[in-house]
Fold these 2 entries.
Entry 1:
Amino acid sequence: MKILFLFWFFSFKSIQLKAQQNIYPTYAGNDLGLTYSKSASGFRIWAPTASKVRLHLYQQPLGGEALTTIELKKSIQGTWTTTLTGDRAGIFYTFSAEYNGQWLNEVPDPYAKAVGTNGKRAMIVDLVKTNPDGWAGDKSPKLKSPTDAVIYELHVRDASIDASSGITNKGKFIGLAETGTKNQAGQSTGLDHLVQLGVTHIHLLPFFDYNSNDETETKKPQYNWGYDPLNYNAPEGSYATNAADGAVRIKEMKQLVQAFHKKGLAVVMDVVYNHTGLTEQSNFNQLVPGYYYRKTEAGKYSDATACGNETASEKAMMRKFIIESVLYWVKEYHIDGFRFDLMGVHDIETMNMISAALQKIKPGILIYGEGWTAGASTLPENKRALKKYAAQLNNIAVFSDDLRDGIKGSVFEVAERGFASGDTSKAESIRFGIVAATQHPQVDYKKVNYSKAPYVNSPGSVISYAECHDNNTLWDKLAISTPGTTVAERTNMHKLALSIVLTSQGISFLHAGTEFLRSKKDVENSYNKPDSINAIDWNLKTINNDVFNYVQQLISLRKEHPAFRMQTAVQIQRNLSFLPSPRGIIGYRLNGSALNDIWKDIQVWFNGNATDQTLPPEWTAGYKTAVLNNEFVATASGGQQVIKGYSCIILYRD
Ligand code: CA
């Protein structure tokens, strides 16, 4: 019996192994990459296709001969290991793998936490030494409901590179951590401005180590958004005061997080796991050629990102990589949220695993992404984390391009107008946005611009916005699409657009500078354009101070009134009702008393027409106008409520 049992056991094992041959063994441990202590540095690399793996040690981040080269030992589940004794912090290292009899390029491992100049070599790092003073006491602001978030999307360099910022460390992490900075008129800029504006979450464009800027050229102005990942787990060098020292990058990024947290601001990281900046030369491909990517039947890289490749989140070790990476950023850097670039490239199952893992270590963490791809993918459509499948995503929000383009017209058709710029036929897309893409009996989904059905079950699953870093800024789009209008008219359109964003249910999202009419000089795609296009001109805050005050007051209104931040679709169905309204006007009531709001009853009206309109007194009698500023509210005359062209009014009863 015993012998028979053993025989059965071994044949079962061999069947298992055969099944795994095509997909490689996966490594179950959590010590991939460097494990550092003062007495030893251990390395474990997953390279199941390699016949040999070598570790190369260097004194410097670029150039010079290797101090030594060490052959790794084959270990379990496709991994290779070695250990260096002693305190090796500050030593640079790379790996190379022998594959099909050929040695591939030296690269840092994908898990590298510290890298030197241009991310070519990893660095052994003592992470404890990268903690700024007081780091142990650093606390993230609490977020009760995702709909309480008002997100502000900002690029590290844009924030400070212009002279008008008054910031000393221009273009750097620590520049954005400076306080007391002012523009030429003495108004606050940078971090102080963000606090004054009242937003809750600062979403930073990619700040992991990306490929495009040459970090040896510290004096030469260089610009990129950073959507070309090189080393996912290390900060970008061009934002550090010394790109050569991996520890400086880490410390300065932590200083920025700490400075934000001290002011009560949460930090959202823009992550781009959907592709790598390099393809054949990427760290992934030099260690395990082909594994981490999707390929077509013809053997070509599938390219749903339009960047030359797409990663394969459904494969065990790619999935594990993403999950461990986001957890690392939360644990080591105290990151409070993630924005997934082209989230539709990832599979739903992986996104839900990411969400569950993050919620476990940081309940209430904010996760959202672009529910689309930029091209065809080999991943079956019904597995993609697309907007249309948003209801299957747990605690993950998607951007509402329906609302974005309903407000201002399609981002792809520059001449097209939206509701806020006079195309009142887009009213239903605005109503769809007002109810945060949930099911509501008064929305006619057939008339919505893109989605013909609600796609989320909860308002916390949708990002309401009019503008982000992509495409023309809202201010530029309005100018391009409304020839013949005056600056004053377009200013009203701009305010109306942001009124819709900040009063809609869902999560509010603002592009940096929109609060004072930021322009990119009509440049539609500024990803690699110079500072003259991308930098934030802080003097605009003074020039367009009325708009700044207006947006500041809208944010304050949103934060003071829970009626604008309902947490469930049922609450919206019960407490938000659209009012009958003439063409080009949208009006709705909020039942404040059912929502613990100090205003018992609220009316919100938007006029997308160029001309002033009068609301019948029977609708508005007995309501007060919310005094935000004089530009904002129309005054009642002869018992009639006038709503000016391209404007919003808010009425209430207490
Ligand atoms: Ca870089």
Entry 2:
Amino acid sequence: MRATAIAHPNVALIKYWGKRDVQSNFPAVGSLSLTLSGLNTRTAVSFEAARSTDEVLINGQSDQRAGIRITRCLDILRDLAGVDSHALVESTNDFPTGAGLASSASGYAALVKAAAAALGLDIAQSKLDEIARIGSGSAPRSLHSGIVLLDIASGGVDEMTCRTVCEPDAWPLAIEVAITSRAAKDVGSTGGMELSKKASPYYQAWVDTHPADLAAGLTAVEKRDFEGLAEVSEQSCLKMHAMAMSSQPPLLYWSAATVDCMHRIRELRRQGLPVFFTIDAGPQVKAVCLPEAAPQVKAALSELPGVLDVLDSRLGQGAWVE
Ligand code: PMV
């Protein structure tokens, strides 16, 4: 009853920010994302009859806070399999954890994939997506390859679908990830989303205008319209951060180097280079570009004083069992 799975993190171009309901962790909006090759979470799950609780080790350290949500996901899988043994979960990331690089997305994707395999469950993909979502709203996207759409049903029904809308080789985008800090963030995404919902005057406008952004992002992908995707993605990112900043107390995820990267990327685009930025709940900047522009984008970002490292990524596969 042991299996190991590998998952890549993902980055949303049309962002998810806000939960319809914290308890069920159902997102208030859909999202459109890129699954990132080159960054890996590797998770081994073993169900052991002698254990009295689930134990979670992330990068070798016991993590009890993550353990609560992980147990919720494992409980659903245990019920489906008719098994009541507790599990040892050992997860390692080869990139900074909890620092705005979506380690929770790859973490929960690898977890549910490994746990289902360890339990010998033959489970529908949509069910696995749903269980991953209970762990992290962005996690179902890491179960899928390439460019991924997580769509929620209209009319307030808590139903979602998650699927690849463009395979990695159908539009081979490159992503250069500028690391400006390796520290874990102070306010995680769940706390940040709740604060925005409660205290940002822009929250309702975000929810109301989001379906149009998602539709525009999807059309740009379907048409392989890089300029169109650049425009709507940067706007979605800035809308999300404007909402975070306008919460009370305000949430500012950016460092000075984050802002320098944004300016540099916009300058490169003005000079004709196909590149745009996106930033999640942390100070790292992801520069999405056409592959031929990647070396120039990397060189330009590496030169900036606050940039510690630039990681290369392409579109990757959904989570798989090793
Ligand atoms: O799934 P969570 O709770 O890690 O939230 C993800 C939130 C953002 O990364 C900021 C946006 C997104 O859509 O990935």
